[in-house]
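Each field is listed here:
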Amino acid sequence: MLILVRGMTAAIVFTTILGLSVPRAGAQDAFDVDGLVQRMSETLAGADSFSVHAEKLFDVVLLDGPKVQYAGAMDVEVRRPDRLYVSYGDDLSAKELWYDGKTLTIQDHNSNVHGVVPAAETIDATTALLREKYGLFLPLAELFSSDSYAKYAEVAGKRYYLGIHDVDGRPAHHILFTGERADWQIWIDAGEVPLPLKIVVTQFDIPGEPQQTIVLSEWNLEATLPDDNFEAEISEGSLLAEFLTAKEEN
C-alpha cells in the first residue's frame, strides 16, 4: 500500500477499545516496553529480505466536519540495504513504488502518471530524501528502517503496557505511546518472533482527529526477492510527471 501524504507526521497511534480497563498509574513500568520494541526492531533489522501484507482502515475528515472511513490494502517487499517495492490500493487511490538502489519510481494508476527521481544508496537514506526534499512520507517507513527502535524513541512520550490482547486470533502485547502531535498503539506478537501485528494512529493535531488502523499479516522473514521484483513496470500510456520539492510546494 502506498499513500504519499505531504506534511504527514510519523506513523503514531491511539484508540479507545470498549471494555478495555483503564491502566492504573505506573502501569507502563510493569513491563519492559522499551525492551520489547527493541527486540521487535532487531528482528526486522535482522531480516535481509522480508515481505508483508497490510490491511488498512483510515479516516478522511470532510471540509464541513463529518468523518468518513475508507479501506485499503498494501503489499511490501524489502531487500536490504537497497531494494523496496510497495503496491497499494484503497477506495480513493492506487499506486506502486519501486526502488532499485539507484532510482525511485512511483506510478499513480488512477491518473496513469508516474514520476522518477534519483535515489540514495540505501532504503533509510532514500526515505529520508523523500521526506526532506519532497515532503513525502512512505507508509510504514519505520518498519523498513534499519533501526525502527530509534524511530520509535524519537516520538514516544509516555508508554503504557495494556496487556495481552487478540489480533486475528493471535495473542499480542498491546502497547500505547503518547506523543506531542499524535498517539499510537502497537500490538506485537507474543509468540517466539516479536513481529508487529497491528498499528493504530490518531493524529489529534488535525481537526476531527482522524485515525488509521493497519493490520499486518503474511510475514515472511526469509522471502526470496529477485532483482526484477524491484524494476519499475510502467503502465502503457502513463505520462511522466515531475516531483514537486517541498520548497516549491510551499
User: Anything to note?
Assistant: Residues 97 and 106 are 5 Å apart (CA to CA). The chain has five helices and twelve strands. The two ends are 26 Å apart (CA to CA).
